[in-house]
Amino acid sequence: MNDELKQIAQRVNWFEPPEKVVQDVDRFLVYFMQYCSDTDISVMRRYFTNQQFRRALDNRSPGIMDERSVAYWDLVLPKPNRDRMPPLEDAFGLYKPERSVNIEEMETAIRDGAIK
Fold first, then answer.
1. What are phi and psi of 109, to 5 degrees?
2. Please, what is the end-to-end C-alpha distance for the chain in angstroms?
3. What residues are paired with 102 via a beta bridge?
4. Rounded Cα–Cα distance for residues 78 and 116 (Å)
5. Can you say whether residue 66 is alpha, beta or left, with left for phi > 0 and alpha for psi between -120 and 50 degrees?
6. What angle is formed at CA 28 by the lines to CA 43 and CA 40, rounded to 5 degrees?
7. Full pLDDT tens readout for the chain, 116 residues
8. How far apart are CA 48 and CA 109, in angstroms?
């Protein structure tokens, strides 16, 4: 385990040694999704895939995550067979976007200030 993951493990699960926390990846990711800081997300995305985050979220133990965190991560993590946002249409069905965007493109646009 490297220093980055060790520091994050200590922050999100302060009552167990970090070496024990990271042994159960799903449990570690659930605690991370509940207690992470926004600066930790890009670090964790280098080590874990969307599929690993989604699996941890879908199989989480009760009582660790609050409803707000569950709702956020359920929104930003692609669901199986639905990793692209469906095209939007206006009330009259006239607006047809040129293409749909995936979650990573959306996060990049928000981070770069293109979307506020």
1. -65, -40
2. 36
3. 84
4. 21
5. beta
6. 20
7. 788 999 999 999 989 998 998 899 999 999 999 999 888 998 999 999 999 999 999 999 889 999 999 999 998 987 776 545 554 454 445 555 566 667 787 788 778 877 65
8. 21
How far apart are the C-alpha atoms of 19 and 4, rounded to whole Å? 13
Q: Let me know: does 53 contact 40? Beta carbons within 8 Å.
A: no
| Confidence (pTM) | 0.67
DSSP notation for the chain: --HHHHHHHHHH-TTS-HHHHTTSHHHHHHHHHHH--HHHHHHHHHHS-HHHHHHHHHTPPTTSS-HHHHHHHHHHSPBTTB-BPPPP--TTS----S---BHHHHHHHHHTTS--
C-alpha count within 13 angstroms, C-beta hemisphere, residue 43: 16
Place of tokens 């993951």: 5
